[in-house]
Design goal:
Elements: E1 2-8, H1 15-28, E2 33-41, H2 50-58, E3 61-69, H3 75-82, H4 89-102, E4 105-109, H5 125-132, E5 136-140, H6 146-159, E6 164-172, H7 178-191, E7 195-200, H8 208-218, H9 229-236
Parallel strand pairs: 1-4, 1-5, 2-3, 2-4, 5-6, 6-7
Helix pairs in contact: 1-2, 1-8, 4-5, 6-7
The chain binds adenosine-5'-triphosphate, 7,8-diamino-nonanoic acid and magnesium ion.
Protein name: ATP-dependent dethiobiotin synthetase BioD
Family: Belongs to the dethiobiotin synthetase family.
InterPro entries: DTB_synth_BioD, P-loop_NTPase
Amino acid sequence: MAVLVVTGTGTEVGKTVTTAAVAAAALAAGRSVAVLKPAQTGVAPGEPGDVDEVVRLAGDVTAAELARYPEPLAPDTAARRSGLPTVRVAEIAEAAEKLAAEHDLVLVEGAGGLLVRLDDAGSTLADAARLLDAPVLVVAAAGLGTLNTTALTAEALRARELTCAGVVVGSWPRLPDLAARCNLADLPTVAGAPLLGAVPAGAAARPPTDFRAAAPTWLAPRLDGTWDAAAFTAREAPSCPTRPGAPSA
Ligand SMILES: Nc1ncnc2c1ncn2[C@@H]1O[C@H](COP(=O)(O)OP(=O)(O)OP(=O)(O)O)[C@@H](O)[C@H]1O
Ligand SMILES: C[C@H](N)[C@H](N)CCCCCC(=O)O
Ligand SMILES: [Mg+2]
């Protein structure tokens, strides 16, 4: 019975596919899993949303969505424009706790990055994490620019006394460039938290059975900071030769 809040350094960084990978790894380890998307934007009624994508990829996951807005915008903007009600942070916490009573792991996927507003009062996913006292997993992009957005996200978490569980690279390129390779060593430094995995680019296009079999190999055995990032680096990426004194990548 644990809640893990999944945020990202922005939208389109691979939060959903990472959430699916964590769910698949947890299922493979024999744990029951639920996924909660408090506010789904950019999806029309009846269309599959992020939680449906998690179920498609990971399998036997309980899926819940609290609000849906058709326009691809931040939830508060989308709610204002549609006239639909906003989602309250207390409602998110209540839904997550209810799922946590019945599942070993509850994954709560935000919309966009950490400080995207849920309502016109400025509530965010961070407020929900606070209420739940839940750790936050940060999904980051692989390449140039990710160090800044990851550091900003980590700083925002610290300022709110939230625990950063670690960082997962949401889409690890087949041919990582120099910046991506070096980022494997630098992301933990700027995040102040361990690098807990990397989901290969194109993972969501794999047949679900392949996705489920491979997902545990993309992530730390346990998302608790004991994963050996150096081992991943050695297996998946050539070394970064540029910075004297940097941890060998
Ligand atoms: N590892 C990956 N393999 C395949 N496709 C990916 C991967 N990472 C991201 N994508 C694609 O990139 C896009 C964004 O990914 P995703 O939906 O996971 O973003 P997100 O961070 O969850 O954004 P949102 O804020 O909308 O929830 C999607 O179209 C997805 O199919
Ligand atoms: C539509 C998109 N895919 C997400 N669901 C919402 C992303 C909101 C991002 C807002 C922002 O940071 O500017
Ligand atoms: Mg998503």
